[in-house]
## 1
Amino acid sequence: MKLYPAIDILGGNAVRLAKGRFDTRKVYDADPEAVARRFTEAGARRLHVVDLDGAREGRPVNLGHLAAITKQLGAQELEVPVQYGGGLRSLKAVAQALRAGAARVILGTAALTDPTLLERALRRHGAERVMVSVDSRGGQVVREGWTRAAGVEVREVIERLIEAGVRALAYTNVDRDGMLEGPDLENLAWVANVAGGVGSRAGASPRRPAVNLLYSGGIGELADLEHLAKLRAELHLDALDGVIVGKALYEGRFTIEEAHEALRAAPGA
């Protein structure tokens, strides 16, 4: 499994939220580029950057920070892909993020509300460069910077996205995000099964292309990562490709190298 250290940018700062609530922001560094440098120097092999201002405003706000991070990685001659999301609700915004250096863009609200945009983004940039984030609160999908319920269940959304050609998904349990209380293993198992084509609804294609799923929410200690790796191995959840970790790294609960080792802990993980 792959580790994606998270850099969430709000007001120009690297922050973390609790349960997706903007009024709980905690600033960890006034320089997101410095955070990216520390993560990569500590061994990060990829980065997950979220434009929280953009998610709230509906347009990318922190493309300058994205460009600075990717330029810095280039200057260090590091091949560390950066995936970027937040406020990407038009083809223009998607193209801007890719030009700023994102290896992969993350669509959230737009993928749920504008299927034409999703279709055009996949066709223009390829499924390997377009990820969709499915964020859940109380079993229901939320959108627009985690501020509104979409009124649909996670399973329905994931099946719809896969049938639309999405091959990279990120699943976040917003109720656990930033709480350091452990991952939502039960729901993750069935989400990964759906992503892998197990238990899909009647009429869905019985043979699906490979889908990569990232999990986010609640990681607080190394044992949480070990449990994810063990779950993947024991239940043969091949779709579960990686985990996004933020607050635990900022709080010094473990190092990036320790996280890499934990994700290798289970046979076949």
Note: Confidence is low (pLDDT under 50) at residues 145-149, 199-206.
## 2
Amino acid sequence: MRRICRHCEEYPVSRPKGLCYRCSKTPGVRGMYPTTSKYARRGVGRNDDAGVTLPLPTDALPGTPEKLAVLMRRAASGKRLWHPDDPTTGDGKA
């Protein structure tokens, strides 16, 4: 029995996430479906394809209680955990 694409329900599955080649290459479609692999990384913040892009970075430094609180708020609201402009070191440089 051949599996059919989860998105278009038209073509046979040939790519991960249960998608056909056409749907897997369509922008935005891959992020709509969770992985079907038993070896995939799962958990909050693991899927960087999904989630709402963050409008502003945080000023909180890594490892501080403030940064952990920001990460928890972002995860709870379904946003990406990391903004490209979040500080990465304690020396004031991004």
Note: The chain has a mean pLDDT of 81.
## 3
Amino acid sequence: MSEVFVDNVNTATIDIGDIKALNGRIASSAGALIHETEEQYRIQVKKLDNVTAHKKATIIENTVTGYNTDYRTRLINDGNIPVQSEKCYYGGSLDLSKSGYLEYINFDSNNNIIYVTPWIPLKRILLPER
């Protein structure tokens, strides 16, 4: 759906096409569907404000997917949104092979998701190569 990037809390709209296009590890279709459904529920039924609903939906998304993402870091920047996870939990245990990564959700001028970048290790970004 054009003009809607994944969801629009003000119009109670979820863009299933965008959700289907999320094919990353952190930014996954399953995680996004859970997040958006929970967020809309908390706004429409529980009457929470948008920020509180988004925060609580991110916690639910993290619980289900195992990735530890921060609700505050998802900022639109020149056609992409960074999504990072410093830690990943699988079956209740820390999974170091999936921890410390960043993805970018790329979208076009109509706010349609077109691609999710492959994982980039956070330490490659944060630490200079020697």
Note: The beta strands are 7-8, 13-14, 80-85, 89-90, 93-94, 101-107, 113-116, 120-121.
## 4
Amino acid sequence: MSFHQAYKTLVEPLLGRTLTPADGSSVHPALRIPSALADYYAAVGAIDLINRPHNRLLDPSVLQVEDGMVIFYEENQGVACWAIREVDLHLPDPMVYQGQATTVGLEWYSEDMTVSKWFPVMTYWQIVNQGFQFCGYAARIEDAERAVSAHYPFLIAHVNGSIRFHGVGCQIVCLAPGGAAAAVWAAGRTEMDFRHLASLLAFEWDYSILDEL
């Protein structure tokens, strides 16, 4: 499967519709970039719901090499960013690196995931962080994975195990393990989706959009 088709297969169930050319960025990158990144822009780069609700995909026109890195994604508070190395630009699917802001500049380390593997994790992370409007958060849920997996299939996890995702297209749950308890983010495409999810899981949410309706 091509990178372009893989991104469509990922995103269409979340949107509940077929992608169109308008969902891709019409802006050409400012430099030659790997096909895994170029295809992401072309397939889904214009969809705010997965690219800008929390962290931010940079416009392809502003991509440039700085200190040997090409930054293409920024964390919402500006304390981190994601990039590929200049020396890897010739690769079709290079490794992603995260830069952490320090007093002396950015400190880089590998995400141990290539571009095409990293984007699905970030896409689901965006979904549960207000990509889907109807969402909730619980800081500590004991035996959370057992409860979630009883209702939702496993989707994907970061390679380091820091976050795991379960769900179906219109209902997504993220778990961040923490010993006996886990932090839980959850979101539904519609109010009905989130109400159904919340009813199934029956968690005590620290935050729920339903409390504001």
Note: The radius of gyration is 18 Å.
